[in-house]
Amino acid sequence: MTIGERIAFYRRRRGLTQAVLAGLVGRSEDWLSKVERGEREIRRVDLLAEVAKALRVTLGDLLGQPILSEEAFQGDDVPAVRDALMSPRRLSRVLFSAPEDPPIIDLQPVVRAVEAGWADYQRGRIGRVVAALPGLIGTAQHLEDAAPGAGLDYEHGAWAASARTHHLASTTLSKLGEADLSWIAAERAMQAADHSDDPLVLASAARAGTHALLELGRFEDAVNLGKTASAWLRVQLDQGDPAALSLYGMLHLRTAVAAARKQDRSTATELLGVAARAAEQLGYDGNHWQTGFGPTNVELHRLSAALDLGDVTTVVEQGQVVQAESMPVERRVSHRIDVARALHMMARDDDALTTLLDAEREAPSLVRHHPAVRETVKTMARRAPVTGGRSSALLALAARCRAV
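== Helix-turn-helix domain protein ==
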């Protein structure tokens, strides 16, 4: 279903008339009728979040959850990730105590495996990350069980590895639109980071929290978390440290996006300014802690915030000329998706399709399973004229995205 059809479905399930639901979100009945019929799009994510709140459903319920259907040899491992995260053993360490002496495993191979997962994520290989996550999460849980009594250094390292694992899970799941699972993983990441006694681990895990809150439509909470984490990091570490500076700047970028999604232009501009100064101090496009932070990433986030604020022309004009070759594949492709969405909003569907196909060639799974891509392609396919307007390339992309 389209977003409008989902709104109509949940509205009827709640027993609300179009007039009542429209009134709850401060809109006219005619506006809602056009949205439900697919004649009008809801482009502002904050307004979509208001509709979801009025219907008492999640933002993800209205956006629709994608189906991860990778190549046959990889399979669909999101259910396995869910099983790993929702194991009853994680509910209580008292009720489900570990063996008295769980085996101590070498931390270094685990750390290397987690960092390999992060490398795959940044290369846009989402299917490979999802396939690896169940095993990584299981190992992280074993490390948590083995940490007590294994020596302080080992304990801190074990908790840090668990935090990084669950952060990877949260960020990956948020890309797939699995908002609730992403939140569970983010909470586990921050709990583990609390035990790691490492400010950088905790600041990094806070990024996972902002990702999950954004997917859940809890924009004010995302702003508060980002501001709190960045203020805490600032007093904890010397800002001359490139890693700390990168995390500090990246927290401001994620918080700026959250502010933009709740249509707080002044706060978004202020936060982007702080990030820009941090990037200037860093002086280059780095990738400390897989942040990809630097002047270029600030510009990409500025355009992402502009899209959420409705500055579509700015995104199209500046987004197509910005040089993003220094960025990780995931960041470059996410930017292209933003540009494609902006082109679509300007009814330049042919250009939007070309941009999406270029992005797909670089990171197929990232594009095909991105919730925003699926909605954009679905709308493009539905509004294209039946005769001569629906190109085979568009229909093929829609099929690959499971949008039709």
